[in-house]
Specification:
The chain contains 10 helices and 9 strands. The protein is an alpha+beta fold. The chain folds into 2 domains: about 160 residues, no CATH class; about 180 residues, Histidine kinase-like ATPase, C-terminal domain (Heat Shock Protein 90), CATH 3.30.565.10.
């Protein structure tokens, strides 16, 4: 919490306390008509009350705030907190009594011993209670400030962890995909230079997307989907059967945004573990926008012996993918992974 905010909280507490104090003082003096003089006509009575209400309040408040909270409450030493709290109240009571006695020597106030020791003990106890109550308020204020700072610290740590994990995810460019694509394009140059140039442009777009688009927290869904389309097109170089993968996006997608590279691990995983490139509809990738929700499904057929990946996406652990989604979308997403009858299916919903 900023120092200026802490100062404002302290100032606000003491202003409120003084308002209540002055209001109570006026009502008390008018009700008892002590000295039979107008309120604040001389300040003898006010000095008397000030030593009862202000000095022990400040002493108790900041003793609890600065010392007892840190030394005992945060360390869960409740007995010592209780013991030193009572000791602080006693010190507040004695301090107020000493001040009242000194002022009485100079003709300010009536002192505490005019009505005997019993009355003096009652006044000391009363002042001590005032100090104790303000001490409790000081400890509550310190607890609030500490709680707020803890929340901010946790948020900062979460954000830092989030940024580190995002950097990790973004840095995991699949080298096999890159090298294989370059080799495929190199072979294609001799057969069809125009097509090879088109594929090279797509690869360039993919690299540009990884380098620049991933720097922002959210991008249009159309850009993310365009990245998937280029990735799929480059994967198709390896086969003469373009129908082995189906990629569709439906719904009103123009206003939808998404975190960059959220979907690609699932798509890369599908290509990595698909049963082959000759059969049709081996891989199906679907995206659908319905109102405020985005539904993503990616399923691929696989050979049982080929899938021993233990739910890993592009070398990134399933736990990291789930954690990234949790950091990005918290309670606004669901991720379902099913492996049944030779089909591996991922369903992701983002609200």
């Amino acid at each position: 919490m900023k120092k200026s905010v802490v100062i404002m909280l302290h100032a606000g507490y003491w202003i409120l306390y003084l308002v209540v104090f002055v209001f109570t003082l006026v009502l008390f003096q008018l009700g008892t008509n002590i000295g039979r003089t107008a309120v604040f006509s001389d300040f003898k009575f006010e000095f008397f009350i000030a030593n009862i209400a202000l000095v022990p309040a400040v002493l108790g408040f900041y003793t609890f705030y600065s010392v007892l909270f840190t030394r005992f409450l945060t360390r869960r030493k409740i007995f010592l907190l209780f013991l030193f709290g009572l000791l602080t109240a006693l010190v507040c009571g004695l301090t107020g009594a000493i001040n009242l006695t000194i002022f009485a020597m100079f003709g300010i106030g009536v002192g505490i011993f005019n009505d005997g020791w019993a009355a003096a003990t009652g006044i000391i106890l009363f002042i001590g209670i005032i100090g104790l109550l303000n001490g409790v308020m000081g400890m509550l204020l310190k607890s609030f400030i500490t709680w707020y700072e803890d929340i901010k610290t946790k948020e900062a740590l979460t954000q830092k962890n989030f940024e580190m994990e995002m950097a990790l995810v973004k840095s995991r460019i699949n080298p096999h995909f890159l090298f294989n694509t370059l080799n495929n394009i190199d072979v294609l140059i001799e057969k069809d230079a125009v097509k090879a140039s088109a594929y090279l442009n797509k690869l360039s777009d993919i690299m540009r997307f990884m380098l620049y688009e991933t720097r922002t927290e959210q991008i249009p869904l159309l850009k993310e989907w365009g990245y998937l389309e280029k990735y799929v097109e480059l994967q198709k170089i390896r086969t003469a059967n373009p129908d082995f993968v189906q990629l569709t996006l439906v719904g009103n997608v123009t206003e939808v945004t998404i975190a960059p590279m959220v979907l690609i691990p699932f798509v890369e995983n599908a290509f990595k573990y698909s049963e082959g490139l000759r059969a049709e509809n081996t891989i199906n990738i679907k995206g659908c926008v319905d109102g405020n929700a985005f539904y993503f499904e990616c399923n691929n057929k696989y050979l049982p012996d080929a899938r021993k990946h233990e739910d890993k996406f592009n070398g990134l652990g399933d736990e990291l993918i789930r954690k990234r989604l949790q950091l990005l979308y918290s309670e606004r997403h669901t991720l379902s992974v099913q492996d049944q009858d030779g089909v591996y299916c991922v369903n992701l919903t983002i609200i």
